[in-house]
Amino acid sequence: MIQFTQFRDLLAYCQQEPCSVGEAALRYEESLGDRSREEILAGARGLLEQMRSTIESGLFCEDKSLSGLSGGFSKKVMDFQNSPQAFMSPLEHRMIAYALATLEENSRMRKIVACPTAGGSGVVPGVLVALWQEKDLPMERLEKALLAAGLVGEIVSHRMYLSGAAAGCQAEVGVATGMAAAAIVEAVGGTPEQTLNATAIALKNTIGLVCDPVAGLVEVPCVKRNGIAGIHASAAATMALADIVSFVPLDEVVDAMVQVGQMMSPKLKESAEGGLAKTDTAVAFTEQLRQKQQNPPCRD
Amino acid sequence: MSSHGSLFDIMGPIMIGPSSSHTAGAVRLGLLARNVANVPIRQVTFTLYNSFAKTYQGHGTDRGLLAGILGIGVDDESIRDVFERVKETPLEYSFIPNEAPNHYPPNTVRFDMILENGNPLLVIGHSIGGGKVYISKINEYNVHLRGEYPTLVMFYQDQPGMIWKVTQIIAEYNINIASLNCTRKEKGNEAFMAICLDSLLPKPAVEAIRNIPCVYSVCNVDKIPS
Ligand code: SF4
What we know:
The structure holds 2 protein chains of 2 kinds. Chain A is an all-alpha fold. Helix content of chain A is about 60%, strand content about 0%. Chain A has a single domain (about 5-295), classed as 2-methylcitrate dehydratase PrpD, CATH 1.10.4100. In chain A, α3 crosses α6 (about 125-135), α3 (about 35-60) crosses α7 (about 140-155) and α9 runs antiparallel to α10. The structure holds iron/sulfur cluster (SF4).
């Protein structure tokens, strides 16, 4: 079995072979012995197709979520593209709108791909499906890009639980952003060094991100945070592709995240007891919601 | 924390939102509790702890747990309408959020079930992120069960030869053992064995194991879809 305990093991493997991070991810998964190479690529394609289908059904949907906190944002961004004030590229608009569409579907209790969790599920699909449509990349590139993202998440998960409750949002949208940065570099054909640098640069800027969702729902700030994260990952990927090197190597960045996660107050770990969740607006909304849901469903 | 798992555990599951630990994890815990029961469940009380207790309605944790108990999978859109679906079944259920301080991990649920045969069954489980779960208690026994493999869980009086007797029976049915784990409180006292298998043991094999002298209890727990 091929084992990558740390990112430096992965980099050494890629340099020695030589191969890309996506190819290393494919060989790693193959070495687990449950699926053939073809089955793994087909599995990745299946996930990409589900991601695209979630985006398609969410993109122009204006239905609100169960709580009423989100819904209709992705359509607004798609519509805004045609405004004379629009200043970002069509690719960037799509990255934003696709991530929003995914999270909106998530809050409507519809089907999504957790990546690495539901709260961060818009970031990787947002960048990959937008690249797929705008850049005309070969399918196998995209499949490997997704696998590269998965391997990044896998190696981080050796050192921290990927949940807001365990380590704050740096473990959810933060890790998703690091995964997406790697996916972009792999998709456009960057080197393994660039791929891992992109992740390191992205993660350094999400370190310490707290989880303070209003009323404890995966909506505020989560939906819009996903909308931002694809652009964040793109900036990190661009710097890495331009051969800017992270001063702190990726393994140490992850160690720092783990440490910050341990230092973070439990009030900022999904418990809705601090930060945005304790603002006046959030508290008032939470109270309204509580009144609506007063009687827990029960039957005996 | 996991180590060296499948990349499809990181990118996945394909699931119904809104939360992998509170919705998908809840469904998978329900499915796992259902597999531990292995016979129809007549009644269930879900006691929710910590973060599960705080946000269970908004995150669909209640719907997820109930869906799992009914055998509905994480990617089935009918999770949303499960309160309607359950009316078509004889299952009785209730939810108790328990916000008192405790030593459990953030997302914990206790299932107090009454099975079709009238037997009570207690299961305590935890959702640890990304839809991953494990069960830490079955009745009065401590276990660690993740639902990744069909697993034979048994409790017995510690004595020489038990592993041999059990594996002998499993071998007769030509089923491969993926891993075997046993612990005991003290020598000669009660012991626990979990055997992960490549496929679920057929009923007669389970009966044969149950009939080994000094075996207290056997659960044949199927894996849950990943
Ligand atoms: S803020 Fe919390 S609930 Fe929202 S995406 Fe981040 S970790 Fe998940």
